């Protein structure tokens, strides 16, 4: 019978039998216990292993347990940097979407009226409206929020959209954008266009379309969820992000290229956050990359960069 559980001692023995150098077994066992075998070992296999004669994998000669830990650390720190900016995108998206919606539909409870959304997918509209209603009822019962929600309900008979949208998940906020009428989507995209112009410092001839913005927000949501739940981001395959020539061409990314790696999603953040925030994330990631380069061998480093599609801006 195949054993499901392996003690840290057994895990160490398996790793050593595969050629991994472990000089400090006590520290290695502590790391495996605290950070999980899957995240330390399985996540780093593509970067440090090769197939042996019997078809099973073995570690490349000279690979040390600390090399694996360095890659795990890079993945962890990369997600920290990304998450801070994803939260900023959430704030911005909630504010712009609720403002533009309420500006167009100022009557109370307009966001619960399906006539104020696109007519193309009524079932999706109903699901989204029901989820907003459920959110209102849920937070009316929670001590930290029931006073504020009940305040609006008791005084005005409804909860303003700009208030309740802060209680919705980022995914649900993106869903709301998806079901808006096209003109309202355009108005919202025009606000995000200002970030593009600020980040690129160009006299723009290309405009951010609702379809592009929807694609970019979905990718930002995926990055946010991976980072927030501490899932592996190295090698993650994202939904193919829409092509925006003004941004992608800066990095040598062509229209026919696949855009499913982290870097492809990261560069389009220039359409979602102000320049200062994008420069910050760019500098922090560059620093992490340079640090990793000094800590692992060239082959592993190149494979890791390939797994996230990392490339610097193309020289003019």
Would you summarize the structure shown here?
The protein is 61% helix and 2% strand. It is mainly alpha-helical and 316 residues long.
Characteristics:
globular, mainly alpha, single chain, 316 residues, 61% helix
What does this protein structure show overall?
The chain has helices at residues 8-17, 25-35, 37-40, 45-48, 65-104, 122-140, 143-156, 161-164, 170-179, 182-200, 210-228, 245-248, 262-267, 275-293, 298-308, and strands spanning 49-51, 57-59. It has 316 residues and is mainly α. The protein has a domain at 76-287. It has a two-stranded antiparallel sheet with strand order 1-2. Helix 1 crosses helix 2 (25-35), helix 5 (65-104) packs across helix 10 (182-200) and helix 6 (122-140) packs antiparallel against helix 9. The radius of gyration is 24 Å and the shape is globular. The model has no long low-confidence stretch (mean pLDDT 93).
Helix tally equals 15
Structural class: mainly alpha
Helix percentage range:
55-70%
Largest sheet: 2 strands, antiparallel
Give the spatial strand order of the biggest sheet: 1-2
Proportion of β residues?
under 5%
Radius of gyration: 24 Å
- Note the gap between the termini: 61 Å
Run of helices and strands? HHHHEEHHHHHHHHHHH
Tell me the total number of β-strands.
2
Mean of the pLDDT scores? 93
Q: Which regions have little confidence, pLDDT < 50, spanning 5+ residues?
A: none
Q: What general outline do the C-alpha atoms trace? A: globular
